[in-house]
Amino acid sequence: MKTKTFIALLFTAFSFVLGAQETTYTFKKGDYSGIGKWYMGREIAHVMGYQGMSWLERSQREEEENSALLLKNMRIRPEDDIADIGAGSGYHVFQMAEMAIDGTIYAVDIQEEMLLAMKKKMETNAVNNVKLVRGDEKTVNLEENSVDKILIVDVYHEMSDPVAMMRSIKKALRPRGQLYLIEYRAEDPEVPIKRLHKMTEEQAVKEMATFGFRLKENINNLPWQHCMVFVKGI
């Protein structure tokens, strides 16, 4: 009798956990730019494939985004270990590598083509403080407490499993580390980006709170994007 009771309780507990996992996300038809998967009222956008690499390297990007100011906002020190999540072709990676000369820049991406593009740049320019990391939809594949700063530029809204990914990211960030979440401002209709590829500060703060991050500041000096600085909550 006790065995049957134990099995019943075990089954109930398993069903509860499974049910909680299933209700983390909802699935319904939405925007053509989305994957039909929703988190906290936000539809997750399609990932930009490596075929769009030329857009990442466009000549007008500095004027539109002012990455030099973004990196200045990060207050990068020579000894910093920094992870660029969704590094793409390495637009920010190699700029940071010149600044964190005694640290390591972890260039994380899930697309092999992006990693190959960065590898070619590393070899061409003899860069030795960048480490390429192949992530996947659930993990950034970084060691625990391995980085001082994490940069996520216009990528978070495309993460198909943000819960798993942010757990992995939080684990990799050192206790006093900072997360720089950069997203196009959805509050501004003048920002010429598709709706699902923008986020409001309110939505970002709400989602980050569920992962144990709190907003330290939103540095409001970029042309089109939020520069939100998050730290681990107390």
Automatic annotation (TrEMBL):
Residues 81-205 form the Methyltransferase domain. Pfam families: Methyltransf_31. GO terms for biological process: methylation. CDD domains: AdoMet_MTases. The keyword Hydrolase does not apply. Gene3D superfamilies: Vaccinia Virus protein VP39. Keywords: Methyltransferase, Signal, Transferase. It comes from the Bacteria. PANTHER family: TRANS-ACONITATE 2-METHYLTRANSFERASE-RELATED (PTHR43861). This is Class I SAM-dependent methyltransferase. It comes from Croceivirga thetidis.
